[in-house]
Structure of Site-specific integrase:
Amino acid sequence: MAGKQAKILSPQQFSRLLEAVEKHRHPVRDRAIIYLSAKAGLRACEITGLLWGMVTDADGAIGDALYVENRIAKGKRGREIPMNSELRSALIDLKAASPRSEPHHPIIQSERGNGAMTASSLVHWFDRLYHGLGLDGCSSHSGRRTFVTRAAISAVKVGASLRDVQEMAGHSSLQTTQRYIEGSSDAKKKLVDLI
């Protein structure tokens, strides 16, 4: 896929992903991975670097935001992302099922139980998942592109701007954020009809 952007996920494809991971050996963990990608826009290295302390409040409960610390963020661009309600539920379930959920412990554990999953392992995990579902052109970045595109489309509805989307994505430039956003032929037609 060199030179091509990862495809974004339709709502139907996203549902298929969730259905597929329910049949995995670790469905609770795998559901959280899908939500961290598509509902928080995290990169593979950020998903695997995320610690429980980055998603919990002072009492140890899953909080209202997740904090991508500089040390796990690309370009050391840490950020705060408000917690999507479905992601929050998935993390609550994962925390309840995890044998180790101290603040310094990785959220996404390796299947072998020897610590955090590596970013390259997660990239391969996504590749196998998408290939198994026949979702050609999708990669570990598809959830992130889906998040950025949907956030950009919804921004106007809630009084947000592309700058807000840029900050949640952790991009240094608005131009980078704009490259992630996929246009919609239907939306363009509706827009032109309003003119």
User: Anything to note?
Assistant: The two ends are 38 Å apart (CA to CA). Residues 11-143 form a domain with the hpI Integrase; Chain A fold (CATH 1.10.443.10).
